[in-house]
Every structure is written in C-alpha cells, then in structure tokens.
Amino acid sequence: MTYTPGPAYETQPSDHQPPAGDPARYGQVGPTPWTFAQTVRGAAATLAPWLIFIIGTQLLSSASTTSGQRRLSPAEDIVGAVFAFFVTGVVELAFVIAPAYYTLIRHAPGISPRQGLVALGLRSTRLGPAIVATVVGFVVIIGCNILYSLLIQVFNLPLRTNSDALLQQAKYAPISSLALIAGAVLVAPICEEIFFRGFLFGGLLHRMSFWPAALLSAFLFGLAHGDVGSFAVLFVFGVVLAFVRWRTGSIWPGIVIHAANNATAGLAIILALTGH
C-alpha cells in the first residue's frame, strides 16, 4: 500500500490538527504514514518475543511459588525494588521499538520524524473533548472492573489475576511490589499506548473500519498481558482506549486513563496489605 501524504503532512500543522482522511474510518486519527503491512510486521516482531517472555516469567513464578517464599529483609527488598523497576522499564520499552523504527528511522518519503510522532498520537488535542473522553472512559473501565469482580465473587469463578499474584508477592516483598506498581503507573501506560493505540490501532485503520481495528487491537492488548483471569476486562479496556484515541486523535487521554486505572489497582493492593 502506497502512502500519499495528505495536506496536514505537506504543511506544518498545529499538533491538534488531524491528518486528512475519511472521518468515518479514521476519526481524528487520520491515515498513518506507516502502511498496513508495516503494522503487521511491527506487531509480529513485538508481540511474538513478548509472549514468549511473559509465558517464561509466569512459569518461573509458578515454580518459585510452589517451592515457598520467605519474607525478604529490608535491604534485600530495596535491592529487589530497584531491580524490578529497572526491568519493568526495559521490558516495556520493547513496545516502543517498532513505532520508533517506522516513524524516526524508516519513515515514509516526505514525512519528517516530527510528523511521524504526531501520527502516533503524541500531539495535543482540544481540551474540552479530551477531558470528557478521559473522565467517561475511566468511569466505564472502573465500572467494568467492579462488575467483573462481583461476577467472580457471585459465581465463585476460579480466576487468578495478575493483581492477585502481585498481592501475594507483596506479603513477602512489599517494597519490590511497590516498585512494580510504580512501573505500572509511570512507565507501562506510555509505552503500551504508543504501541497499541498509536502504532497498532492507527495502522490497522488502513484496511479496517473502526470496530474491527478496535477489537483486534484490544484482543492483542489483552493477550499481551498474559492475564487469563483479567482478559475480559483488559479486552474492554482496550476497546475503550481505542475509541478515545479515535475520537481525540491523541494518545495522551488514553495514557491518563491507563495510568489512573493502574494506580487504582495498585491502591487497592496497598489498602489490602494495610488492612483497610
């Protein structure tokens, strides 16, 4: 698929101005300068090794859990916290490689790196609609989380989420667990929104209308977390974030929603540990 720069790329637009394109398909996202084929290649190169890493770490975690855990000393826990935050940052940066490659290195002819970053959604948007989208999106996601938790309790479903695993870990490594929560709030939302909503969802719109692109990107978003117990909620989460990106054109509202959701989950873990 050959990309032809639209008027918004031929000039130097303000950051909140969307690229040219059919609004019924692209919304405020606009056609991206990377092609559908590049989107597929970038997604495969990112998600295949990521899933191998997730499965491997979960197998190692299961083995260590079955062998028993002791509470770490404060010194050990602090070292573990520094290491955990560093590793979180490094592994999350894997989501930025493909978007950076296709926007900063192998960008389309006539498209500057700055315009590529704008196409990723790293741009401003109208404040009023962004605030409404952020608040509504966050409320919808929190409502889904509450409803899902109630369903698990009412039907006594044997589901174990990543939050449950982190809560268990926090009992013997509280400082390290706080570092993981910090990484989930400060690092993960930026990296994951750049990839899933900026690069992947935006690129899928070349060949798909909104709903197929949103559903596929949300499915891959849920799959990448390796959290079977929370997959349904993560899927809805991904759809909501794709819709916010589609309506605002920017990934910043999605980053705020993502960070707020992770912070809420982290706060619930902290309160459970302190007995509140």
Textual characterization of the structure:
Residues 1-16 have low confidence and may be disordered. This protein has 13 helices and no strands. It has 276 residues and is mostly helical. The longest helix has 31 residues, at 36-66. It has one domain (30-60, 72-274). α3 (36-66) runs antiparallel to α10 (188-204), α5 (94-105) crosses α6 and α12 runs antiparallel to α13.
Descriptive labels:
mainly alpha, 13 helices, globular, disordered N terminus, 72% helix, 276 residues
- Give the number of helices: 13
Overall domain count: 1
For this entry, what is the oligomeric state of its chains?
Answer: single chain
Biggest sheet descriptor: none
Average residue-wise pLDDT: 89
> Secondary-structure element order, as H and E?
HHHHHHHHHHHHH
Total number of strands: 0
Low-confidence stretches: 1-16
User: Quick one: overall form?
Assistant: globular
What distance separates the N and C termini? 56 Å
What structural category do the secondary elements indicate? mainly alpha
User: Residue share in helices?
Assistant: over 70%
Radius of gyration: 20 Å
Query: Beta-strand percentage?
Result: under 5%
Helix and strand layout, with pairings?
Layout: H1 7-10, H2 23-26, H3 36-66, H4 74-92, H5 94-105, H6 113-119, H7 127-154, H8 162-170, H9 174-186, H10 188-204, H11 210-224, H12 231-248, H13 252-274
Helix pairs in contact: 3-5, 3-10, 4-9, 5-6, 5-10, 7-12, 7-13, 8-9, 8-13, 9-13, 10-11, 10-12, 10-13, 11-12, 12-13
Short synopsis of the structure:
With 276 residues, the protein is an all-alpha fold. Helices cover 72% and strands 0% of the residues. The protein has 13 helices and no strands.
